[in-house]
Amino acid sequence: MKLDGIRVLDLSLFLPGPTATVxxxxxxxxxxxxxxxxxxxxxxxxxxxxxxxxxxxxxTHRGKKSLALNLKDxxxxxxxxxxxxxxxxxxxxxxxxxxxxxxxxYDAVAAVNPRIVYASISAFGQTGPLVGRPAHDLAVxxxxxxxxxxxxxDGRPVLPAMPAGDMxxxxxxxxxxxxxxxxxxxxxxxxxxxxxxxxxxxxSMPNSMGAAFAEQRPPVPAEERIWGGNAFYRIYRCxxxxxxxLGGVEMKFVEALLGALDRPDLVPLCRTPxxxxxxxxxxLEETFASAPRAHWESFLAPLDVCWAPVNDLRTALSEPxxxxxxxxxxxxxxxxxxxxxxxxxxxxxxxxxRSPDHGGHSAELVRALGRSEAEVAALLADGVIxx
Length: 387
Prior knowledge:
The chain is an alpha/beta fold. It has two domains: 7-203 and 324-386, Rossmann fold (3-Layer(aba) Sandwich); 233-305, 2-Layer Sandwich (formyl-coa transferase, domain 3). It has 16 helices and 14 strands. Helix 6 packs across helix 8 (197-203).
C-alpha cells in the first residue's frame, strides 16, 4: 500500500486531525493515537454509542492504535520524543503554543528526528492577531464569511450541516503531508505544516469571490449563481412535502428541462443569474408542487438534467451508488462504518474496522522502545502511561 512503513503519531483531538490520520491509516500507515490519561480523546464520549464506543470515535479512529500518555510528566515527554524518533509524521491540533509548552513541538522533535513531517492544524493558524483565540468550526465559518451566505429564505444565517473548516483542513492536511513526504525523498529532511481551518475554507470558495473581488462588495446570496440566484440551482418542494434539487445551470440542462415542460420561452431568462430569473423560479416552484416527488423522479430520470431527491441521511446510506463505491462498510458484527474516499486502482484502501481501546497499545508500544516489564509496570503505576 502507498503508506506501508509510515508511522504517524496523532496528537490531535475532535475532528480535523483524526479525520486526516484515518485517511492515512486506510492506505497503510501505522497511526498511533496519543491520548491523555483520564477520558482521552473527547469524541470517545460524543454522540450516539454502539456498545462501549461512540459512532463518532469509531469513524475517526478505526484502524489506529492508542497510547495513553501523560505529556505533562517529564518521563512521558521523554517517551514521546523517543517514539518520535521512530516516526515519519506527527499531527497535532492544540491551540497554538500548547505543544511548545509541553516540549513536543516541531523544533523539539526535529532536534531528535530531522526527517519528521509535523503538521499543526488550528482554527486560525500559527501566526496573526487571532493566533490565541479558541474556536471550533462554526466560529471560523462565521468569521471568514462563509456563514453569511448560508442563509434561509429570510436571509438569516443557519447552522451548517457539515463542518466545512474541519473537513477541508483534514483533506488539505493529507495533501500537505503527502507533499512533505515526497520532498523528503529528495532532501532527506522533513518539514513543518501550519494549516488553518480559516485558510482552508477561504481557499475553497474560488467560485464565490466574484462580487467580493471584482466589485468590492459582499455578495447577495439570493442573486448569486449557487446560492439562490439561479432557477436551476435550487431546492424545490413537491406536492407531498418532499424536496428535490436542480443542480446544474449549464444551458443544455436548462433547455432539456424547459423543453420537456413545454416552456422553451423561459430559456433566455436563465442566461444571467439574479432577479431576472424570478419567473423561471416561480414556474418551477408551481410545477414541482403540482405532483408528488415520485412522479418527478420518473419524469426527470430520462432527461439530460442535473437533479436529485433530497434524501435523509439514513436513506442516503442505502443508495446503490454508495454501495458500489464501498462508502458504507460493515464489520463482522454488522456495525456500519464510513468507507475510504481515496481510491487507487493498483493499491486500493484497506480500512481497518476496529477502533482502539483507550491506551490499548500503551504497554506494547513502550516495550517496543526497549522498556522491561518492570519498567512498564512502574510507568503504569505512576500514571505516566495508561492502559
